[in-house]
Amino acid sequence: MLRKNNLKTGSPEQPSEYDIEAFDKIKEMLGLEETYDGEDLDIDNDIYDSRSCTFPISFIEFAIINKYLYSMYRKSVPPISVTSYGYTDDVGRINHGGSFNANDGWWFGGKFDNDDNDYIISTKIFLDNTKELITEIHISVKEGVTADALGNKLKELKKLAFNNSEYCGKCIKVKLKEGRFRGIEIIEFKKDDSKLILSDVQRKYIDHFVNRVKRGSSARYLLNGAPGTGKTQSIRDIIKVLTPQVTFIIPDFTTCDDLSVILEACEIFERGVIIMDDIDLYLGSRDNGSYTKLLGEFLSFFDGVKKRKISLLASTNDKGLVDKAAERPGRFNMTLDYTFLTPEQIEKVCQIHLPVKYHIKEVYAALNDRINGKKADITGAFIANLADNIKEMSEDDPNWSLEDTISLITESYKGFYSSQNLVGNSMGFKIG
Q: Is the dihedral of CA 224, 226, 229, 235 positive or negative?
């Protein structure tokens, strides 16, 4: 079913002049008519009854509440009985049902448990005249209650929605492009049995990050090192350990305003961690003369007067590219360096990735030898790639020998690190 709606995601239009009339029609249709005697009343909303109230919400709250109420409509079970839902079109016509998309505005009719009142809950999303994304929720009741009571009902709804949200305790990508909300994607993990070899210092501080976030404190870590040294694998491992107790958020944005909105919105998660792989490529650097407004917005978010409860896990290929201000206390709690493998670590990684017959000193020596006239800088990613090549090539050549493997190490090293330099500017966090 095709749906035409002036409030759908990305529309630059505000709600039309028919929206208020449309909402009144919904109330009339569901038996929630309200009367007014025409007198101007100066009332205290905390004391006198009200039949409706509008509240600003974040776009993440918007999507989660929409999904929750729609799921309750489909289930028809407590704690909220949603008996009807629909939308209004661009001229204010009321529609029951529709092809559901959590990124659009909807109305829902129903009751809360232990509450005899009838409710209409309406969500709205639009860009205002300044192109700012506006997300709201409007609650209307059949029998009037105080404004405080409506506010408490919203708190109850948020708690129910978030405790039952499919996003809570997952790794999610939040998409906002030039003010247009593009949705939330759950990032699924691929099975990965590989083990990351860390130094004692790295293990100590990674464990500290995990424990700090587990107990509800915030932490901001910057992982620094060349490609293939284990930064992204460390991030994957941290996610695996902390989910589902913690929600991980990967911002997908275009402008500094997009990033600011995402950062603010994600604070609704009781325990949340922002993931920014290759942070210097996202935000620029003063040191290289490419300071951007985006970097300023990002740093001021974490360095402001307000204490932030959300954590940050970022990585970079070269911390010299990151603005020095970002390394000050209060911006990152820890900058953790990832270096090339030591001879001892090379042996351990070989024992993880290479066939048993290659767990020999000749292979270890080749990986620790000088290549192109200098000491080889070996990473775990290189050895994993080498293992794949040995497997494929030995299957094609029944006479594959140890000498072939030693030669492959040298040639692979040259090609692997040349390609790493070429793709070093690629940006984005990938789970699989």
A: positive
